[in-house]
Design goal:
Chain lengths: 110, 117
């Protein structure tokens, strides 16, 4: 069970769109539509942003969207805002009731 | 509103057992869902440790399975983590969370555990 692969950092200017990729294998992302994304600000607990690949919990801005193709999932943040600067983690079910996270991506708003 | 609160020693000696408890309020563990422990070493990413169902069924990260025990006490509405034979590599922020079959929707604030003599 290896960690999912995310870019270490992604940056963008206010108002722009950015996309964070999350690459797994046919044993996790490729087999289940159980990919979720979490936002973590410094010193805070992670916050759920996207679940089941592309569903948004109540209260999460529609600027956040998710998708999946094959073994890779993606999180897109449109209309980037200063408050979006944070670490983002993807997570996938990996079979047999186990879960695997990505290494995290630091989003910087320029 | 569902709330989770971790508690336990912030300092554990190498080779000893780390013990943490997660108190749940606003939801009865006996009502269902799964309950998990997740950790985050300083400056690093998240790692799923294990899951327990209210019935007591458990599922562990294969890399930690030999050292981990998760238990539940429905009468106190809490669940616990024990990690044995700890080393400095186990120093991390430990989070408890609720798993609604598909997603970790509620998280505790986390508790930092340092392994040091």
């Amino acid at each position: 069970q290896s960690a999912l692969t995310q870019p270490a950092s992604v940056s963008g200017s206010p108002g722009q769109s950015i996309t964070i990729s999350c690459t797994g294998t046919s044993s996790d992302i490729g087999s289940y539509n159980l990919v979720s994304w979490y936002q973590q600000h410094p010193g805070k607990a992670p916050k759920l942003m996207i679940y089941e690949v592309n569903k948004r919990p109540s209260g999460v801005s529609n600027r956040f969207s998710g998708s999946k193709s094959g073994n890779t999932a993606s999180l897109t943040i449109s209309g980037l805002q200063a408050e979006d600067e944070a670490d983002y983690y993807c997570c996938s079910h990996a079979g047999s009731n186990t879960w695997v996270f990505g290494g995290g991506t630091k989003v910087t708003v320029l | 509103q569902v709330q989770l609160q971790e508690s336990g020693p912030g300092l554990v000696k190498p080779s000893e057992t780390l013990s943490l408890t997660c108190a749940v309020s606003g939801y009865s563990i006996s009502s269902g869902y799964y309950w998990v422990w997740i950790r985050q070493p300083p400056g690093k990413g998240l790692e799923w440790i294990g899951t327990i169902y209210h019935s007591g069924s458990t599922y562990y990260n294969p890399s930690l399975k030999s050292r981990v025990t998760i238990s539940v006490d429905t009468s106190k509405n809490q669940f616990s983590l024990k990690l044995s034979s700890v080393t400095a590599a186990d120093t991390a922020m430990y989070y408890c969370a609720r798993l609604t079959v598909t997603v970790f929707d509620y998280w505790g604030q986390g508790t930092l555990v340092t392994v040091s003599s």
